[in-house]
Amino acid sequence: MRSFGEVWRSTIFQKWVMAITGILLVLFLVGHLSGNLLIFLGPDAMNGYAVGLRELFHGAALWIVRLGLIVIFVLHVRAGIVLSQRNRKAKGVRNQKFEARSSTVASRSMIYTGLLLLFYVVYHLAHFTWGAAHSEFYHYTDALGRHDVYRMVIESFRQPTIVATYVLAMAVTGLHLNHAIASAFQTLGVSHPRYTPLIKTAGPAVSILLVLGFLSVPLAIAFGVVGG
Amino acid sequence: MNLRLHIWRQSGPTDTGMMKTYDLADVSEHMSFLEMLDVLNEQLSERGEEPVAFEHDCREGICGSCGMVINGRPHGPLPRTTACQLHMRTFKDGDEIYIEPWRARAFPVVRDLVVDRSSFDRIIQSGGFVSVNTGNAQDGNTLPISKKDADYAMDAAACIGCGACVAACPNSSAMLFTSAKIGHLGALPQGQAERYDRAENMVLTMDAEGFGACTNHYECEAACPKGISADFIARMNRDFVMAGLLNR
Ligand code: HEM
Ligand code: FES
User: Fold this and answer.
1) Cα distance between the two ends of chain B
2) Which of B32, B33, B84 has most ligand 2 atoms within 8 Å of its beta carbon, as the pocket-test mutant?
3) pLDDT for B24-52, tens place per residue?
4) pLDDT at res. A201
5) How far is Cα B54 from Cα A88, in angstroms, rounded to an integer?
6) Span A4-222: which CATH code?
7) What's the pTM value of the predicted model, to 2 decimals?
């Protein structure tokens, strides 16, 4: 029997941490996306939902979820950085020729897409949560005196540079998840002659669906489909 | 056929090493890749130069000695083929061929194409065994093993320990090798007693030797001359975490 510290530091345990936190983040994205799509139902649905989130259990729910997300995120990013440094060191000198057979651009760039996501998340929070970036769109209130999230989103995505930033960020997300979702199942030891091939197809498919879902909002606004 | 070879030359563990180019004429397409290197070495010796050091033993694809990266792929371009079983008919006149050693911090270069793979031995020593009672041999058939389990264990046991999985992996991870050994013994009744200790000890030894983590590129599986499946890695991932829970 080995100490828990040894097991915790091991490559496989850290991969489990990354896979479990990664799957939780993907589940969060699914929830996040369903909230975003309310924009297509109009200002009342969107602003009412935002207030609802803030007031659920007298505001406790939002903070519990936020704290959970912060812990999950930190664990995921920390494991990702620690492992990729270890992997780089393990290879040492590289061969002058490397011909990939099964790895992909997505699988080989996980740490880069991951770190870009880290920057994006900070920017995204500064934009819509803290009102620190593009603050000119942050301070609207609707007829009922609620924070006008709907108008903030609409006005933001009428700016081509903001739309371009989000499109790029979603491309990076798509690349990260293209490898990540199926990979997490393998890491967690899910392997089955019938279901593994299915997972390997479904992972990238889900990543594309998620990204298209998120992109639908800025693109619909940029092309005037929503918000006039 | 005439070939231009780019070969990694390194006189010893502390030498920095570099690629050197050699032109080799009149190579027969019937030669194996190692025979082609033998011919080169004869010419080098005649010219008073150091022959290229490379490892080999059985030359029939079963011992796992003959590891080298050929044109960016461990054991060369053919699937499920060791370097010794690769023949020059796979190449054509005028080809340039890059020949390099396995690359991993846990496989230090000894000389030219020869690397020290004793880190694999230490992984095996830490758990690649089963304990059996001494005394009379057991009665035949007292330990029934289903065909399914026997086949599964046999698939894992096909590993010849050549290290191509490590060489192919961008992280120099030894997970395919280690998982094949853990899966082979862990699938059989004789291996049950130590199943979880084995998974824990072999994985932690693998880490301590400086091999990387698996990022599920599956380059190992594609490079393995014995076609060992990365499903064994998934099984190891399960066994290791089970060990962490059970061995408390
Ligand atoms: C923000 C910074 C992030 C960083 C630095 C990061 C980094 C990484 C790295 C390095 C991997 C390792 C890939 C591998 O070992 O195969 C990984 C895997 C993964 N990431 Fe991220 N990531 C980040 C954000 C995210 C987000 C926002 C999500 C979810 C939407 C996510 C989901 C996943 C999943 C599911 C895996 C697969 C785990 C596995 O292969 O076992 N990551 N991430
Ligand atoms: S020399 Fe034995 S496998 Fe190639």
Assistant:
1) 63
2) B84
3) 999 999 999 999 999 999 999 999 999 99
4) 97
5) 26
6) 1.20.1300.10
7) 0.94
